[in-house]
Amino acid sequence: MLNVNDYHYKKILVLGLAKSGVVAASLLHQLGAFVTVNDYKPFEENPDAQGLLEQGIKVVCGSHPVELLDEGFELIVKNPGIPYSNPLVQGAVELGIPIITEVELAYQISEADIIGITGTNGKTTTTTLIYEMLDKASRNPLIAGNIGTVASEVAQKATSENTMVVELSSFQLMGIRTFRPHIAIVTNLYEAHLDYHDSWEEYANAKMNITKNQLESDYVIVNADQKELMDLISFTKAKIIPFSTKEFIQDGASIRNGMLTFMGEDIISLDEIVLPGAHNLENILSAAAAVKLMGVDNEAIRKVLTSFTGVKHRTQFVEEINGRKFYNDSKATNILAASSALNAFDEPIILLAGGLDRGNSFDDLIPSLKGVKALVLFGETAKKIEKAGTEAGIQTILHVNNVEDAVPAAYEISNAGDVILLSPACASWDQYRTFEVRGDIFIEAVHKLKKSS
């Protein structure tokens, strides 16, 4: 860990706990700051806050009082999940107090090079692929960010022998000042999280922050199939490495004659790649480009791509029961992600979908419902998705209470050869704390069904 003196004797507010807030507060305390932690959960129900108090850190719990700003903080480290519309955050902005997220701290203390991955969809798969490829090449990678351990915790252990592979959300990237990955990746960019961001422009600009501090010696890997994204990224000082699933690119990653290529060099035949779905080609191309820039040999890439079948909660094969294949795609929290999963299969699909109602319709899902033979719906959006399913011509549509009930219901109306796919097209928060919890409940229900079959 690099010795950072920037925070000695500074008054810093850590706003919101969860994993990132706990790590940030402890780290700043270790770096000599005067830390105050503010969390919405009451102190008596808040073991994280209790643990920080035992370290000698001041804690304020139960609300986010704007009056806290009277204490003269010089910096706020904000939990990414707390929106900028929060009155305390708005007050800090008006006072000109800098607001960062903990990934900024991670960058400042890390001895390791950083590969940062963002985009609307595909971040987790791309991050995991890069980690696995670097690992196969014995490059000592460390995985961090949204996908795993908090980045500023991983950074404390990182040395110059490591490479940090960090998945980054728009929420995190809004709170950076100096963060600079050696290699940045933008997998794609579609409308998302507009319940958090004020506008598409704010969302897109947050994503572009991944490259705003990069220099000529750095790289940014970008989806060349999206012209708007290529236009947005044109301001960067980094060397742009494009990738495309639609056309051959000599100076990037693409497909030629059924082969995955980088800088014109054939790496692996598409027939050898076991990860399903055309959408995953984008993730594979960007991951291969990143590790080739790091000097990884083709054999390490091939070893991963001939064995890697997906990450948990992202088109994850769970089990086959009497000829029915069950897939967990709980991480599909928007229409585009669900569409990508649906388009990955040629078999008849029974789709399990529904969740938090963010006010949008599901008209954009209709084209991808053509291969769906039945819908099993739950959550706040069940009626809206039923409407889209009816317009797509789906005859069999069931409503159930939750994911656990959806599994046996789907099995009852299925036939051998069907795919039973959980791909909700919605966030989980109407019924489940996280999409991971939702996916785990699906997996448990599938295993329970197999035992009883």
In short:
With about 450 residues, the protein is of the alpha/beta class. The chain has 3 domains: about 10-100, 3-Layer(aba) Sandwich (Rossmann fold), CATH 3.40.50; about 105-305, 3-Layer(aba) Sandwich (UDP-N-acetylmuramoyl-L-alanine:D-glutamate ligase); about 315-450, Mur ligase, C-terminal domain (Protein-Tyrosine Phosphatase, Chain A, Alpha-Beta Complex). Helices cover about 35% and strands about 20% of the residues.
- Strand arrangement, largest sheet? 7-8-6-9-10-11
Task: Report the top-level CATH class of the largest domain.
Answer: Alpha Beta
**In whole angstroms, how far apart are the ends?**
53 Å
CATH homologous superfamily grouping of the largest domain: Mur-like, catalytic domain
CATH topology of the largest domain: UDP-N-acetylmuramoyl-L-alanine:D-glutamate ligase
Rg from alpha-carbon coordinates: 23 Å
Low-pLDDT segments: none
Tell me the fraction of residues in β-strands, as a range: 15-25%
Query: Overall pLDDT, averaged?
Result: 95
Q: How many independent structural domains?
A: 3
As a percent range, the share of helical residues equals: 25-40%
Structural class estimated from helices and strands: alpha/beta
Named at the architecture level, the CATH assignment of the largest domain is 3-Layer(aba) Sandwich
Main sheet specs: 6 strands, parallel
Can you tell me the overall shape?
globular
Pathway: Cell wall biogenesis; peptidoglycan biosynthesis
EC number: 6.3.2.9
Binding site for ATP: 119-125
Domain Mur ligase central: 117-291
